[in-house]
Specification:
With 331 residues, this protein is mainly alpha-helical. The chain contains 11 helices and 2 strands; from the N terminus they run H-H-H-E-H-E-H-H-H-H-H-H-H.
Length: 331
């Protein structure tokens, strides 16, 4: 008697090429609609978002100014105790220019009995420059009239994308799940939350811990070449967008490893035996996904190496099932 399968495992997944395209179109349309609605909501949060993302840059600029003030104070032989106290109060050197001739004219008008005749100063004393100290406050600038509006729109889009990302990830994973075996679709409930968690963890790592050391490293070259940084908000926004996005995408590494292992392309033993090549690839990937500085590259590559180990553990925890069609059926 011939052996027949009890059930058609492809009954829920068999789709023609046209049906796949129609499914993809539906996913893209729904994702675009959700993103559009969230973009409108993000515009209401844009101003607060712009103020928040400026904080790492302002802090790095303030630290740069304080370090410059310390070096200037040491050069000008400011007493160490006085310099220390000023730096603790976050004071940096400043200068004020005074029109001395105008000052004497005002004094003569205010106290004519004291200044009975006009005082003519020599040319070299027409302007007085007084050295003072001011609080280390920094600001980010725009260079044209429409730049602030474009920044507001970009911040609204970023906020909207973050708000819409759970739905967009769900739609994408739903499309991927349509091509899985029925007994594998349950993993959608594991992959989706894990993917979101990894993306948020990568973006948070970049924003909370990577920006400050990277900016400090980059500003050290300004100090070495005696070029004061004067960043634009549009350039900073691009930097803010690029680095967390790169971290968030790179942190999907464990899921990528699990996916290709479940497809049968790479085995767990290969992941373990080729770890040196994997580390080399991770460092190369980190170089392309971060700015041209070694600090951000290292701060991405080191967590990715840990995530590589996590990917191996995931492959062991969720081993690839045996293909249900590995054994042929008798006609």
């Amino acid at each position: 008697m011939s052996k027949q399968p009890p059930d058609d495992l492809f009954s829920d997944t068999t789709m023609s090429f046209g049906e796949h395209l129609e499914e993809l179109r539906g996913v893209l349309v729904k994702s675009a609609l959700v993103l559009g609605v969230c973009f409108l909501a993000g515009l209401f949060l844009a101003s607060k978002v712009v103020m928040q993302i400026q904080e790492p840059l302002k802090k790095a600029l303030a630290e740069y100014a304080l370090e410059t003030a310390r070096l200037e104070g040491e050069k000008t032989n400011v007493p160490p105790e006085q310099l220390k106290k000023r730096l603790e109060n976050r004071l940096i050197p400043d200068s004020v220019r005074i029109d001395a001739q105008a000052l004497f004219r005002d004094l003569q008008k205010a106290a004519p009995d004291v200044f009975k005749q006009a005082v003519e100063l020599p040319d070299e004393l027409q302007t007085l420059e007084i050295q003072t100290w001011k609080t280390a406050e920094t600001s980010v600038k725009t260079l044209n009239a429409h730049e602030a509006f474009m920044i507001w729109m970009k911040a609204g889009f970023i906020s909207g994308f973050i708000i819409a990302s759970p739905c967009i990830f769900y739609y994408i994973w739903s499309f991927v799940a349509a091509g899985l075996y029925p007994h594998e679709k349950k993993y959608i409930h594991i992959y989706l939350p894990f993917s979101l968690l990894l993306f948020i963890a990568g973006a948070a790592l970049a924003f909370l811990f990577v920006f400050e050391p990277v900016l400090t490293f980059l500003f050290s070259f300004n100090r070495a070449m005696e070029i004061d940084p004067d960043p634009r908000i549009s350039e900073w926004m691009s930097f803010v967008l690029f680095l967390p996005l790169g971290f968030g995408l790179a942190f999907q590494l464990p899921l990528v490893m699990l996916f290709i292992q479940r497809l049968g392309m790479v085995s767990i033993e290969t992941f373990i035996s080729k770890w040196r090549i994997a580390v080399l690839i991770i460092f190369g990937l980190s170089m392309f996904l971060t700015p041209a500085d070694p600090i951000s590259m290292l701060m991405m590559a080191i967590p990715l190496c840990c995530l590589y180990v996590l990917g191996i553990l995931l492959c062991k925890w969720m081993p690839r099932n045996r293909n249900p069609f590995a054994e042929g059926y008798d006609p």
